[in-house]
Design a protein that fits this description.
4 helices, 151 residues
Length: 151
């Protein structure tokens, strides 16, 4: 293990040791099984009442995002932001367009990153895998941001 890896591991371990951090090793799916729970069950695992806009979702579940994202909108009042990795856009384009439309009703896209793991969609310059960051619309101010110079 490199020294940087050890540092990252230690910081991650300290993060997981915090009282308000809970880690569950089950996967998320649209159907419950021995290995997977549903989004509703995942939200029920949170050991307290969930304040509005207090949950940030990072989702990289290898095509299962297309199966669970519409259910995620049932919990949108709790979610302040999302980072979702969308896979296989060459064959799941229509599902991607529809899910993006649904998400855009409540969230703004703040960042798009093409993942070079999957390559490009044939005959295009569009990656097969995109990571997209969304921010809750109600958290975005119409006021211009206050910028401070760093010296």
């Amino acid at each position: 293990m490199l020294s940087t890896d050890v540092g990252i591991y230690r910081r991650f371990s300290r993060f997981l040791a915090e009282n308000n951090v809970h880690f569950y090793s089950q996967g998320i799916s649209n159907q419950k099984s021995a290995e997977f729970i549903t989004l509703a069950e995942a939200f029920q695992l949170i050991p307290m009442e969930i304040p509005e806009n207090s949950v940030f979702v990072k989702m990289d579940i290898e095509q299962f995002e297309f199966r669970v994202l519409s259910n995620l909108l049932n919990f949108q009042e709790y979610i302040n932001g999302l980072v979702i990795e969308f896979h296989d856009l060459d064959i799941l384009r229509s599902q991607f367009v529809e899910l993006s439309r649904q998400l855009k009703a409540h969230f703004e896209i703040t960042h798009i990153h093409g993942n070079n793991y999957g390559g490009l969609i044939p005959n295009s310059r569009v990656p097969k895998v995109l990571e997209i960051t969304f921010l809750k619309k109600t958290l975005i101010s119409d006021q211009a941001p206050i910028c401070q110079s760093v010296t």
